Hints:
- The structure is a single chain.
- The strands form 3 sheets. This protein has a 6-stranded parallel sheet with strand order 6-5-4-7-8-9. A 6-stranded mixed sheet has the order 10-11-15-12-13-14.
- The chain is α/β, with parallel strands linked by helices and 455 residues long.
- The protein folds into 2 domains: 7-28 and 290-454, MOFRL domain (glycerate kinase, domain 1, 3-Layer(aba) Sandwich), CATH 3.40.1480; 32-156 and 191-233 and 270-287, Glycerate kinase, MOFRL-like N-terminal domain (Rossmann fold), CATH 3.40.50.
- It contains 17 helices and 15 strands.
Amino acid sequence: MNINFDGKVLAFINDPQRINRILHSALKAVDPLLIVQKTVSLIDGKIEIRQKKYALSEYRKIFVIGMGKASQSMAIGIKQILNEHIDSGFVVTKQANKDSSDLLLPKIRTIIGDHPIPGNNSLYAADELIQFTLKITKDDLVICLISGGGSALITKPVTDIPLKELQDLTVHLLKCGATIDEINTIRKHLEMIKGGGLAKILFPAQIITLVLSDVIGDSLSMIASGPTTSDTTFFDDAFKIIEKYHLKNRVSKNILNYLTQGINGRVPETVKAGDPILEKVHHEIIGNNQLASLAGKLKAEEEGFICKVINNKLKGNAIAVGKMLGKFIREVRQNNQQLEKPVCLIAGGETTVFVKGNGMGGRNQEVALACAIEIEGLENVCMVALATDGEDGPTDAAGAIITGETITKARLIGLKPEESLANNDSYHFFEKIGCLIKTGSTGTNVNDLYFLFIF
Length: 455
């Protein structure tokens, strides 16, 4: 995994690659393959997952089902551990690595779904999943590998709702700045596999679900929309979200009617806590934003920084979060004029973007641009906004790296940062001044990370 940014941006630092090494350590700590290898073992004929043990002799066959951006790497880890004990399986991911696909064959095949808008590939993946589950019995063990992105990558709307109407609703929700929790609340009530739906289909097989969390607070019911866990939301919650964003006149009558039927009890709710179908389901969160932040902290201290993780639950409007981080940097800088060591402050979370312009960018680039405007003119400071999956919005960037000089340099070449921000065009702004960070797909996904450096 390579993390690329223009070292000239950090000309005031003796060794700009110190920052690169910190970022790399944070991402390596949530490498799905490595995490699975650390979490799962096979000892004396028993699968051991932390404190839980599962004797192979108790099961007829073992199957693997994965969904999410990290599912291929997670599946490779499982295959390396269980190999000949696996009967068959498949994973649904966004960007398949051919080498990884080949490693998983012949027992585990890879299917490509659509993301962030569910499409025909997502529908195909769901149909394949349902067909696959027909051969699973009560005497089998199913290992489910769940990671971020799974909600869009595998989609099976209820029979009353065409895929196109679900796609349109998703677009509206993304553009109006709805949070991932809100989007997934609606998905769970309009689709068959989410909100415990997969657990219902697999019942009464034994299920082990390994989860790489991309959700603030690690709510199992929200990660990939909780296919194997209970749901804490209701039809009424989904309907209120549509009302909150004034979408009633933009959503299809089929969707509104179905939600109304659910509120009135005419269609069944999602799976709730205490349901017997969950008695043989075990969940284990194996990686999250906190794990990545801690690894970044340890590396920063090794690189000579005073480091602290200040928040792993940042959320809300990207511009507001960017301004807040900028004000925080300015405050720390002004209160610590004579630093014995440089400071690194780490935060994590996931912001939302209200799309009102026609530019190109992502939430991390928007956070970075808002922060850069806030710290304009401040000396010897730097901020990195990074999407841990390497995909910030519909761009080839993972985020951006900015300093107190970023806006000054931009204005000198005729760029207008405020206009770029208003037009949601942070990508082209940063592209012109060499501030984009590009990693390519990292194979992991644990929300976003923000690194605040004060030298």
